[in-house]
Design goal:
The complex is a heterodimer. By secondary structure, chain A is mainly α. In chain A, 83% of the residues lie in helices and 0% in strands. Chain B has two domains: 132 residues, no CATH class; 51 residues, no CATH class. The chains are: A mainly alpha, B mainly alpha.
């Protein structure tokens, strides 16, 4: 294996090992390692990487690793970077699952998790507000938020179906708006 | 066959999650609960584990559900499933990413997807909240009151931008203390 691919693997393993919270928390670390230290991509390119990682499906960390790996050393590089970012999580979680299986029936652990479950709800609430703050709040997006919420809670409609519908609706509404703007100008 | 099912389920989850992190939660709930692989309680417990261990949430939860369902081979199948759609799509898009970033269709789809993800996470939060505050098994008035109190305090800390790991540790301590008080 040539040194560049090894380097990709090690760099992304480091990134995977030292990011807590995943996703966006990973971007500053990627920036530091990949732009500042290794100079694999430029400051401007990293913004493109983030934009792509956000608008393609899947975990942001995996998207970014694959993209940068491909850019630096082709598909094989993409593979090494992706395995690198995944492997630390994988090993740690398998180890923790063993531990959880052994201890989860203990009463003290059950008490702890009763508190933790309420705390986790707070973390999700916080994440929800962060997303809400970043999202444009026009009539269309507020309507979509409310509709997906209601369809999921009250009608129990599958999340994948709702995601497909909203993506298609986004395409239709933005092209309709664009058409109307054109008409207004002419 | 369990391995194929794990792979396929997480493949679908990987393919339809936009935005990463908690955006995956609604899909995990609707796809995984249908299989009865793990309970909602276990999913919430695991979110805490995932927040306190390194790595992306998606990988962590795929590995965890794969492992608890079918051991290490199960963990490999679920994790490969959640990674492969991203990997393939990025390899394809990397060839023309400037066009992709400017594409009207992509931008249009994202204007629909962002609010959808928010609506779905809110829905997941409500149903998880009902299960946490009013569990089907072992629920009681004191359980509900304790959970609501912990949730309120931790929400306050979360909005004060305290570290998630600190919040989880404090919640665990609160759970242990209230659990050890007789009569509660």
């Amino acid at each position: 294996m040539d040194s560049k691919k090894k380097d990709l693997f090690i760099t992304f393993a480091k990134i995977g090992l030292f990011t807590f919270g995943g996703g966006y928390a990973m971007i500053p670390l990627i920036q530091k390692e990949v732009v500042d230290n290794k100079k694999w991509v430029s400051d401007k390119d990293i913004l493109d990487v983030v934009a792509i990682a956000e608008s393609t499906p899947g975990p942001i960390a995996v998207n970014a690793a694959t993209f940068i790996g491909k850019k630096v050393a082709g598909p094989a590089g993409a593979l090494m970077a992706t395995i690198g970012v995944v492997l630390p999580s994988f090993v740690i979680i398998v180890a923790i699952s063993f531990v959880l299986e052994t201890f989860q029936h203990l009463r003290i652990v059950q008490y702890a998790f009763r508190g933790i479950r309420a705390g986790v709800l707070a973390l999700i609430l916080k994440a929800l507000f962060t997303l809400l703050k970043q999202c444009k709040k026009d009539v269309f997006s507020i309507a979509l938020m409310s509709l997906t919420f209601a369809a999921s809670v009250f009608l129990d409609i599958n999340a994948i179906i709702l995601i497909i519908c909203c993506g298609v609706m986004g395409i239709i509404v933005t092209s309709y708006r664009r058409g109307r703007e054109k008409n207004d100008i002419s | 066959m369990i391995f194929l099912e794990l792979f396929w389920t997480f493949f679908k989850i990987g393919l339809f999650t936009f935005g990463g992190g908690y955006a995956m939660l609604p899909l995990i709930r609707s796809e995984v609960s249908a299989h009865n692989w793990i309970s909602s309680d276990d999913i919430i417990n695991f979110i805490a584990v995932s927040e306190s261990t390194p790595g992306p949430f998606a990988i962590n939860i795929a590995t965890f559900i794969g492992f608890t369902t079918a051991g290490i081979p199960g963990a490999v199948c679920a994790t490969a499933g959640v990674v492969i759609p991203s990997f393939v799509i990025i390899l394809i898009v990397a060839g023309f990413y400037e066009k992709f970033n400017k594409s009207r269709i992509v931008k249009g789809a994202m204007t629909g997807l962002r609010p959808a993800v928010i609506g779905l996470i809110a829905a997941a939060l409500v149903s998880l909240g009902i299960e946490v505050f009013f569990p089907a098994e072992g629920g009681s008035l004191s359980h509900t009151l304790i959970s609501v109190a912990v949730f309120a305090v931790m929400s306050f800390l979360a909005f004060k931008k305290k570290n998630p790991i600190l919040i989880i540790v404090l919640s665990a301590v609160a759970g242990i203390i209230t659990g050890c008080i007789p009569g509660l």
